Amino acid sequence: MSLDLGRTASPGSTPRAPGRLGVPVTAAEALRYLTDLGLWIDARRSQLSAIDQAALNAPDQGDREALTHDLTVSMALWKAIADRYELLKVAFDSGRVGPTQAEQISTLIWGRLDVTPGQAGEAARSRVPSTADGALAVSLPEACRLSDAMTSSLRARLALEPTAMDVGLRVKSIREGIERIRDQIGLIPPGASRDKANHDLVGLEQRLFGVTERAKRGADVGGYLGPLEVDVAGRERDLIVAAARRVSGERDAATARAKVADLAARGDAIRSLQAQCLRDVTPAPKLGVPDVRALGAVPTDADAVDAFLRRLELVSRALDQAHETYARALAEREELRGLLGALDAQAATSPAITEDERADLAPLHTQLVATLASTPVPLVRARALMAAYQSYLQAVTTNVRGPR
């Protein structure tokens, strides 16, 4: 079993994807899907090339820029889909599909597909679902449907549909788009958004009904079909975007909740470290330790979640800085104590130190021990005493002595 790599492009809508995420795909299902997807990819590339040429010839500069923005996103979608298709062919391996390959194919089809619109501009990026880093967050079937919607809108805006095209076929295509919109509305949680989407759907259905009735009476409906095709494609695109953003928002919200729990625990521990530092050394650093709980609950809106994640990152950086600052102050106290122990060992074993010199070292040592044993430890005084003790000890153990 193998794929025909010499496939011939033929136009068509998104091929139906087999299975669902987590359900292995059989070799026969994979072959059928890859064959259809390959034809779709070739046809879409030809359509985008024609759209690109037509967009360059658009008379209005503003229209040309808007079309270029949408075309850039459409090309990014096509490229991501084509790349995923190549990975699917590798996993398919000419039909040698075992349990591992079947699961891998299912994941490649239904798992997350990242697409980066690149330099498409804000106008284009606002039309597509994205994460905080600007990448699209859709599955392969969703990416194909989004490409269908955007391409249909571009073709209609550029009047690329053949003038002799049968009205019945165009009406059928619009009706299929309306049914896909109905399916997308079923995914919207109950509330104002679903009510508005249903209201818009009724409006599109009424317009389609009016067009078909006019066509039955023999009237020219070409002027009605184009705008209706644009609106149906645009609405379908918007609903795909919204669905992908909901999925991305739910995933980001779960990430935010886990991060809040982590930052809350870290903050509590760092505040304990802060209290220990204020108790044990002076002067102690004076750095605030933020409490992530002050940000409130994780929001549900996708845009609000993105902003919330950015605030969490600021809290994380502030906690890192506070942790490092207070830990460094306590570490200095321990370093001074450790250095004193090393210097005492050096003084005890050095035969070069005379009794008079030991008598000089004794009061410095006593003051240093008392200073480091006090609570809080006065770090400035401890540093000065340590410098004096270390300097004198180094002088009497390293100087070359003459005859006594």
Structure description:
- The chain has 404 residues and is mainly alpha-helical.
- Helices cover 71% and strands 2% of the residues.
- The chain contains 11 helices and 4 strands.
- It has helices spanning 27-56, 61-92, 99-110, 122-125, 140-157, 167-185, 192-216, 222-280, 302-349, 355-373, 379-398, and strands at residues 113-115, 136-138, 281-282, 377-378.
- A two-stranded antiparallel ribbon has the order 1-2. The chain has a two-stranded parallel sheet with strand order 3-4.
- 30% of the residues are buried.
- The model is unreliable at 4-11 and 119-134 (pLDDT under 50).
Topology record:
Blueprint: H1 27-56, H2 61-92, H3 99-110, E1 113-115, H4 122-125, E2 136-138, H5 140-157, H6 167-185, H7 192-216, H8 222-280, E3 281-282, H9 302-349, H10 355-373, E4 377-378, H11 379-398
Parallel strand pairs: 3-4
Antiparallel strand pairs: 1-2
Helix pairs in contact: 1-2, 1-5, 2-3, 2-5, 5-8, 6-7, 6-8, 7-8, 8-9, 9-10, 9-11, 10-11
Runs with pLDDT <50, length 5+? 4-11, 119-134
Q: What is the global morphology?
A: elongated
Helix content: over 70%
Structural class assignment: mainly alpha
Q: Give the mean pLDDT.
A: 81
What's the Cα radius of gyration? Answer: 35 Å
Main β-sheet, in a few words? 2 strands, antiparallel
Summarize the structure.
Residues 1-21 are annotated as: Disordered. The protein is mainly α.
Features:
404 residues; mainly alpha; 3 domains; two-stranded antiparallel ribbon; elongated; two-stranded parallel ribbon; 71% helix
